[in-house]
Write a structure and sequence with these properties.
The complex is a heterodimer of chains A (483) and B (252). Chain A is of the alpha/beta class and 483 residues long. With 252 residues, chain B is an alpha/beta fold. Chain B has one domain: Rossmann fold. Chain B is 40% helix and 28% strand. Chain B contains ten helices and twelve strands. Chain B has a six-stranded mixed sheet with strand order 6-9-10-3-11-12, with helices on both faces. In chain B, helix 7 links the parallel strand 9 and strand 10. The longest helix of chain B has 15 residues. The radius of gyration of chain B is 18 Å and the shape is globular. The chains are: A alpha/beta (483), B alpha/beta (252). At the A-B interface, helix 1, helix 9 and helix 10 of A face helix 2, strand 7 and helix 3 of B.
Chain lengths: 483, 252
């Protein structure tokens, strides 16, 4: 990212509010409100799924019924009534689409408005997009060009029909439905999401990206993403998300599974900008997501980068299971909270193979009356000889009514491990702001500049197209945070 | 350019400036000297608009406008520049990026378009020569890990980039060795012209060997108690401040 761009971005953000808060008026087909075995069957039949998939969903549902919502968190979570949610909502009259011309123009307009062009002529250079609207994937661009290279990039509902052997083999292999409350719920009712397979020796020729949009009222979004990188392959994948402003809380409980085979590398970036609720904490998305990658093969690498600015509550820990010898896991995170937002995020790095390495860089920024926690686990198993970890957790406080918390857990079962943890907490100083002011930079711009500087290490990890977006978001999210 | 009349200011209830008056015209260099605690840094802070200081009386007119009613950023955009005694570090923000933001904020205020990247870089290269600024410094985080001398040179470099009308230098010589002092002073001298003015706040005379002032004022107990030309600074160097303190006490 050049300096010129950085400055331009900061210019643009003066007095913006959540600008994705509009909703699209479109005829929807929805499931009846509430959750039951019938709903699970309804979703499965809508997708025309094979029997084994339905069986798996039902097992997950029955297991979910035996579970209780987690209660170990350090924030208040109003009980969620799972019978008040609509689990399936799709734009009506969706026929099998051969080309974009057949997509409802209202939907295309919605994505245009979000800055996502689905028309391949007006594409972002080198980015293929899968657009998910409420419960269904609307369109995937560049599918044919990718397929020529052997890369499969499509909606997971489509993959179930066209590549059932791959889906069957890997779905739930990294995040089983028994993993936790929300992964069980997701397995029962997931409706769509992206599927990626990169064959052996292929470097995916473009960035892949999925754009998630919640639109309908009272619905939850439960997408499932599965990415498999076969031996010696590489893929960079990005996801973005937004939702309309609504007074009620909406639930988003996704599952993402990554599998990296020998010498494969997966780079997974997220810019999360779900509606955060208003300044008094009314409305907003509950973002309860399970993301995990498995470095199956030797010398494989999985790298998570996330910029979390939205959602009323974010609760997620993108993790790496380092099975392959010499495999590497990375987690780069920026979480910004303002007003009454809560973010509880971090990672788990599980060292199983020998000579495995992990790196964690977490930057938390709390403003308003928000709370921002880093929660992470570094675990070195008995046989993981020569494991290395470096963790850096930096928190920045803006104002004096926000909170920053760090919960690092370290479990070492092998004496050869080297694990380092660094942490710092700072406040945006009045001196820094005054210094900027004295050079003609107003306070809001100064905060944007200082925060972007604080997060630079993480933002540098993002692919260009997203880095620009992310910087804008940081500044916008913190507007009005300095009096 | 700047007209300060009977200025009174305090911080946390403590009176620091007690009726300070000063006239500065374009093209002039004024040195403000005085013992510790006389109010020198308070004067620069009040002029720049630091919020901790409360102005309790008097007026400051800058280019025909009431300076005290303007926000700190607007004062800067109108051409007031403060070279800090202790420049602030901003991690992760390069000097280049910082200055580009500052220059364009000022241009926006003046109704101009942002500067083209190539023009900006050209300007940077030119102005870096003023203080023999090392190229590697401007891509590093602002002031982070800079030596005392590098920080002060960066202040003068920023001054050169922002082309202010009124430059206030707050003890710029403190912590500088003789070579750095010469570099910084040379930079300032190159910036002097008939349209701008300098307010050089210093404790010691030696800076004034390099930046030769038109007027020297002695600040004591929050007021200017004696004014003269550069010879006054030399006298102070020899005799110290005690004789002035005695004069003031005798007159009161």
């Amino acid at each position: 990212m050049s300096d010129t761009q950085e400055v331009d971005i900061i210019d643009q953000v003066v007095s913006q509010e959540y600008k994705y808060g509009f909703s699209t008026d479109i005829e929807m087909e929805t499931a009846p409100m509430g959750l039951s075995e019938d709903i699970v069957r309804f979703i499965s039949s809508k997708k025309n799924e094979p029997e084994w998939m339905l069986e798996w969903r039902l097992k997950a549902y029955r297991y979910w019924l035996t579970l209780k919502e987690p209660n170990w968190q350090n924030f208040d979570l109003k009980p969620i009534n799972y019978q008040d949610i609509i689990y399936y909502a799709a734009p009506k009259e969706r026929i099998k689409l051969d080309s974009l011309d057949q997509v409802d123009p209202e939907l295309l307009k919605t994505f245009e408005k979000l800055g996502i062009s689905l028309s391949e002529q007006k594409r972002l250079s080198g980015v293929a997009v899968d657009a998910v609207f409420d419960s269904v994937s609307i369109a995937t661009t560049f599918k044919d060009q990718l397929y020529e290279k052997g890369v499969i990039f499509c909606a997971i509902s489509e993959a179930l029909h066209e590549h059932p052997e791959l889906v069957k083999k890997y779905i739930g292999s990294v995040v089983p439905y028994t993993d936790n409350y929300f992964s069980a719920l997701n397995a029962a009712v997931f409706s769509d999401g992206s599927f990626v397979y990169i064959p052996k020796g292929v470097r995916c020729p473009m960035e892949l990206s999925t754009y998630f949009r919640i639109n309908a009222e009272n619905t939850g979004q439960f997408e499932r993403t599965l990415i498999i990188a076969d031996d010696n392959s590489y893929v960079s994948y990005l996801e973005g998300c937004t939702a309309p402003m609504r007074d009620e809380n909406q639930l988003h409980a996704a599952v993402v599974e990554l599998i990296a085979m020998e010498k494969a590398e997966i780079k997974y970036s997220t810019v999360q900008n779900w509606y955060p609720g208003d300044k008094d904490g009314k409305g907003g998305i509950y973002n309860f997501v399970t993301k995990r990658g498995s470095c199956e093969g030797a010398h494989s690498k999985i790298s998570w980068t996330q910029v979390e600015t939205g959602s009323a509550i974010t609760w997620k820990y993108p993790s790496c299971i380092l099975k392959g010898d010499y495999s590497t896991g990375e987690f780069f995170s920026v979480a910004v909270t303002n007003n009454r937002q809560i973010a509880d995020t971090g990672t788990k790095m599980i060292h199983i193979g020998k000579h495995t390495k992990s790196r964690i860089v977490s930057k938390g920024i709390s403003a308003g009356k928000s709370h921002n926690s880093y929660r992470g686990l570094v675990k070195v198993n008995k046989r993981a000889e020569n494991a290395r970890n470096h963790t850096q957790c930096d928190s920045m406080l803006i104002g004096d009514r926000s909170g920053a918390h760090t919960f690092p857990y370290i479990e070492i079962n092998n004496k050869t491990a080297q694990v380092e943890h660094e942490a710092s907490t700072s406040k945006i100083g009045e001196d820094q702001i005054f210094y900027c002011n004295q050079r003609g930079i107003g306070t809001e711009e100064a905060v944007g500049l200082i925060v972007n500087g604080f997060c630079k290490e993480v933002l540098n990890q993002l692919p260009m197209e997203f880095a620009v977006e992310a910087q804008k978001l940081l500044a916008v999210s913190l507007e009005g945070s300095v009096g | 350019m700047l007209s300060i009349k009977d200025l009174r200011a305090e911080i946390e209830g403590k009176k620091i400036l007690n009726g300070l008056s000063l006239e500065v015209k374009a093209g002039e260099v004024h040195a403000i000297m005085g013992p510790n605690g006389a109010g020198k840094s308070t004067l620069s802070s009040v002029l720049a608009g630091r919020a901790e200081y409360e102005v309790t009386g008097g007026s400051v007119t800058y280019e025909g406008k009431n300076l005290l009613e303007m926000s700190p950023e607007d004062r800067a955009r109108e051409g007031l520049f403060l070279a800090f005694q202790y420049p602030i570090e901003i991690p992760g923000v390069s000097t280049t990026n910082f200055l580009k933001t500052a220059v364009n904020e000022k241009r926006k205020y003046l109704g101009l378009d942002p500067m083209e990247a190539t023009d900006f870089l050209k300007m940077m290269r030119e102005k870096m020569d003023y203080v023999e600024m090392d190229k590697s410094l401007i891509s590093r985080s602002l002031n982070e890990g800079f030596s005392g001398g590098e920080k002060k040179r960066n202040e003068v470099f920023q001054m050169a980039m922002l082309e202010p009308k009124l430059c206030i230098m707050d003890e710029t010589d403190s912590g500088l060795d003789i070579d750095a002092l010469r570099l910084v002073s040379n930079g300032v001298n190159k910036l002097r012209n008939k349209d701008n003015a300098f307010l050089v706040i210093t404790h010691y005379q030696r800076l004034l060997d390099y930046i030769v002032p038109d007027f020297v004022h002695v600040l004591y107990k929050g007021r200017i108690v004696k004014s003269g030309d550069k010879e006054l600074a030399k006298e102070l160097e020899v005799k110290g401040y005690d004789w002035i303190k005695q004069e003031v006490e005798a007159n009161s």
